[in-house]
Design goal:
about 325 residues; alpha+beta; SH3 type barrels; Alpha-Beta Plaits; 5-stranded antiparallel sheet; 4-stranded antiparallel sheet; 8 helices
Length: about 325
């Protein structure tokens, strides 16, 4: 029944409390009824219960369908990581047997491992239903951008890999690269470091080193000392040659195979230039070079010959 409550001149219908309790969700309540919020809350609670129950049923059904795929993807992921680790150990053993440089070993293993892991993750994502073409496009775009931004550094990186892989020289070798002659102090991934004869340090980018001419004076195991002795043209060359050869044979640091050479290379007015070319080990190069001048002079004077006008290092061997 309705009751009338005077309020500002308006007639407000109001339901009895027992009528509100007997209302069912299917009943229509007048719009002007103040108890509509309570009725709506009951409806929402009923709907939420139905929706949650439907959601859980759908979720369980989806999980039942998706569980085999998920388990298979997890198995592939685990087996993939185990295979990558196994390949890493195989690469390590192979490069160790080939005496590959430690820097190159670390670099190659990192590149192979990262590449295989990326491919594995993309494959697992494809098994789970993700669009792998999007991943591939993103990786390709990122690789292109990085390559364009770092093309100079990548050229040096590739040059360093080639140097460490093919070993045109090693640490301790005497080399001439880009017109700079020195001892190889260190071979890095991006650069090669030389120590020159005057104590300077030259850092050369590996891109230019691998693409340029490399003269390795240590590859044969010995070096040749080129000395020019300037004597008077009136001196007996045969006698001068015998004296110099005897002097060289007395120095145990000078190799007999190949034998030292003593010959006239040209004449300069009233003088003749005699080329003296003994072979020594690399570590004996400078000691023998300095000693040979003094020994040749003393031997010529001891045999009644005039002292040489001058001796000098041949230009092509200056370092």
């Amino acid at each position: 029944m309705e009751a009338t409550v005077p309020h500002s001149g308006f007639h407000v219908p109001r339901l009895r409390r027992n009528h509100h309790r007997s209302a069912r969700p299917s009943q229509v309540i007048p719009t002007g009824t103040p108890f509509v919020p309570f009725y709506a809350a009951n409806q929402i609670r009923h709907m939420n219960f139905v929706n949650v129950e439907t959601f859980w049923n759908n979720l369980l059904a989806w999980a039942g369908r998706f569980a085999p795929t998920l388990i298979g993807a997890i198995i592939v992921l685990v087996l993939g990581f185990l295979i990558i680790r196994w390949l890493d150990r195989i690469m390590t053993r192979m490069m160790t047997r080939r005496d590959t440089h430690n820097s190159l070993q670390t670099f190659l293993k990192s590149v192979v491992s990262i590449g295989l892991k990326i491919l594995l993750i993309i494959s697992v994502a494809g098994m789970l239903g993700f669009q792998t073409t999007t991943f591939a496009a993103v990786i390709a775009a990122a690789g292109l951008a990085i390559g364009l931004a770092l093309q100079g550094s990548l050229a040096n990186l590739a040059g360093g890999v080639l140097i460490l892989l093919f070993k045109p020289f090693k640490v301790g070798d005497l080399v001439t690269i880009q017109g700079i002659t020195g001892i190889v102090k260190e071979i890095q991934i991006f650069s090669t470091i030389l120590t020159t004869g005057d104590g300077k340090v030259a850092i050369l980018p590996n891109g230019a080193v691998s693409n340029g001419t490399i003269i390795n004076s240590s590859r044969s195991g010995h070096l040749r000392i080129d000395v020019v002795v300037k004597m008077s043209a009136n001196d007996n060359f045969t006698r001068v040659r015998d004296i110099i050869k005897t002097t060289l044979e007395q120095d145990k640091r000078i190799k007999n195979d190949p034998p030292p050479e003593v010959s006239i290379i040209d004449f300069d007015g009233d003088f003749m230039n005699i080329f003296v070319r003994p072979f020594v080990d690399m570590e004996d190069y400078w000691p023998v070079y300095y000693d040979i001048h003094q020994k040749i002079q003393q031997a010529l004077l001891a045999n009644g010959m005039k002292a040489p006008v001058s001796t000098k290092l041949a230009p092509q061997q200056a370092w």
